[in-house]
TrEMBL record:
The protein's name: Beta-lactamase family protein
Beta-lactamase-related domain span: 22-317
Keywords for this protein: Plasmid
Database matches in PANTHER family: BETA-LACTAMASE-RELATED DOMAIN-CONTAINING PROTEIN, D-ALANYL-D-ALANINE-CARBOXYPEPTIDASE/ENDOPEPTIDASE AMPH
Domain of life: Bacteria
Gene3D superfamilies documented for this protein: DD-peptidase/beta-lactamase superfamily
Organism from which the protein derives: Nitratireductor rhodophyticola
Lineage, opening ranks: Bacteria, Pseudomonadati, Pseudomonadota, Alphaproteobacteria, Hyphomicrobiales
Length: 492
């Protein structure tokens, strides 16, 4: 058994947290070994006029919820992982009905993400939606982002569908969480809406030009990200979970349909730190960031929770873990520098586009940090968005999400034939005039300039997102984001 250096980990945590001192928001780092807290570091405050953050401060866990839901699903024994979703939800359209339970949990189902579908219909992040309306709307989508088992690409859609399927079998996620919380003596809980009362919840903070605003989400919360609790609550949950056989089942990566290995299991991903592949997960919601890493063999967990939108919880956890395990700086992945010229790139056809930035790449409006890999490749360190790229012969080549890609510099189309006019989708409405796209009505009407990618594709910005518009025919357009790639508008 290798030795763990808790003093070094604590020093690393305090070093990273020192910029969060003062009256602003901050975060908590908590390390636990076999049920005993070994590291507690905190900085910042709960909110204006409120006290300092600590191990018992309550945060939203965001997507850290996913592994808890996967655990509850396996405990229920309601569904086998190979069962198609259509057997549990008979009203699903044919495309999502063929996705298996395991694929839905392991980000391999290609299921559209409901939040990003709402964005493509013009819904802002603050607009409230209800579960009873969201589910039948999602069930009617007869398209997928990708063929099931073909790629690992993040989406919350599978978790929302499976939560509904569980409830129909009598297993209500919030009730299962409450039972675990009572058994463990913790305060973790599942919420339906952002406005539901949560005892002790600290406000989430979003940076603005003149200070901070309070984060908010209008969409109904689901098992993809509905939990809240303290750092101590999460550490106690992990201490109880890790010795159980069920942890190995959720942490074991699910291979693709081709048999190719991945780094993502059932709400658990593997993070490379030195020569280790460490199980854990991260999460992000408006004003909150969360992350954890763990070593089930030694009963060690490391939890990071923040109440600030710019808090890199997963990066902080990896930094502290490296110190805990004595990983030298030379063994860590080095940030990519100058690996490709900055700018927009796109595949020869389809909706795949990317923007190269210093040290990162944005793919379909989702940004991922890149690091130096082997043999001239540049890679991501996120199992749910695997990337392996290089720049050669004027193009980005390699793999995205386990699929081969070749992206060329974006080019300007001399003309935009067949786009002018009015378009509609599911009650949403947009209008195109030359290179201007108008969306919404009345005081919500906004205009965006369309940036060409080439070959009948353009980018425009709406509700803070860069959306790809692809001309399919004289009568059809497709809008897409990273997690929702198939919403079609038709000419009025």
């Amino acid at each position: 058994m290798s030795r763990r250096d808790w003093p070094a980990a604590e020093a690393a945590a305090h070093e990273k947290l020192k910029s969060w001192t003062g009256n602003g928001p901050g975060g908590v780092v908590l390390g636990m070994e076999r049920g005993v807290p070994r590291l507690i570091a905190a900085a910042g405050r709960c909110g204006a006029g409120l006290g300092p953050l600590g191990p018992d401060s309550v945060f939203r866990w965001a997507s850290v919820t996913k592994h808890v839901f996967a655990t509850c699903l396996l405990e229920s024994e309601a569904f086998g992982l190979d069962m198609p979703l259509g057997e549990a939800l008979c009203e699903l359209a044919a495309a999502p009905a063929a996705v298996t339970v395991g694929q839905a949990l392991a980000m391999q189902g290609g299921l559209p993400d409901p939040r990003e579908c709402l964005t493509l219909l013009g819904f802002g992040a603050h607009e409230r939606t209800e579960a009873d309306a969201l589910y039948p709307w999602m069930a009617s989508f007869d398209w997928l982002n990708a063929a099931p088992g073909a790629e690992v690409a993040y989406s919350n859609g599978g978790y929302r569908l499976l939560e509904m399927a569980m409830a129909r079998r009598g297993f209500v996620f919030s009730e299962m969480v409450a039972a675990h919380a009572k058994r463990l003596g913790t305060g973790m809980r599942a919420s339906e809406h952002w406005t539901d009362p949560v005892p002790g919840l600290v406000p989430g903070h979003v940076p603005e030009a003149d200070g901070w605003s309070e984060g908010f989400q209008g969409m109904h919360l689901s098992a993809a990200g509905s939990l809240s609790g303290s750092a101590m609550d999460l550490a106690c949950w992990l201490a109880d979970l890790m010795p159980r056989a069920i942890f190995d089942r959720i942490a074991r990566p699910l291979p693709l349909g081709s048999g190719e290995a991945t780094g993502y299991g059932l709400g658990i991903s593997l993070t490379r730190i030195g020569n280790m592949a460490v199980p854990g997960h991260g999460g992000a919601q408006a004003g909150y960031r969360a992350g954890f890493l763990c070593d089930p063999d030694q009963g060690i967990s490391l939890v990071v929770l923040t109440n600030r939108d710019d808090g890199d919880a997963t990066g902080l956890a990896a930094h502290v873990w490296a110190a805990l395990c004595g990983v030298p700086d030379g063994a860590l992945l080095k940030p990519a520098q100058g690996w490709a010229p900055a700018g927009l790139f796109a595949a020869a056809e389809g909706d795949l586009w990317a923007e190269v930035r210093p040290g990162s790449i944005v793919v379909r409006d989702a940004e991922e940090t890149l690091f130096e890999g082997e043999d001239g490749w540049f890679v991501s360190n996120a199992a749910q968005s695997r990337m392996r790229l290089r720049y050669e012969d004027g193009a980005l080549t390699g793999e995205l999400f386990h699929r081969p890609v070749r992206l060329l510099p974006a080019k300007d189309d001399a003309a935009m034939p067949g786009l002018d006019g009015d378009w509609t989708c599911d009650g949403a409405f947009l209008q195109i005039e030359g290179r201007t796209l108008n969306w919404g009505a009345g005081p919500r009407r906004s205009a965006a300039t369309m940036t060409p990618l080439g070959n009948g594709r353009w980018l425009f910005t709406a509700n803070g997102r860069r959306i790809c518009l692809q001309r399919l025919s004289d009568e059809r357009l497709k809008l897409s984001l990273a997690r929702a790639r198939g919403l079609e508008y038709r000419r009025v």
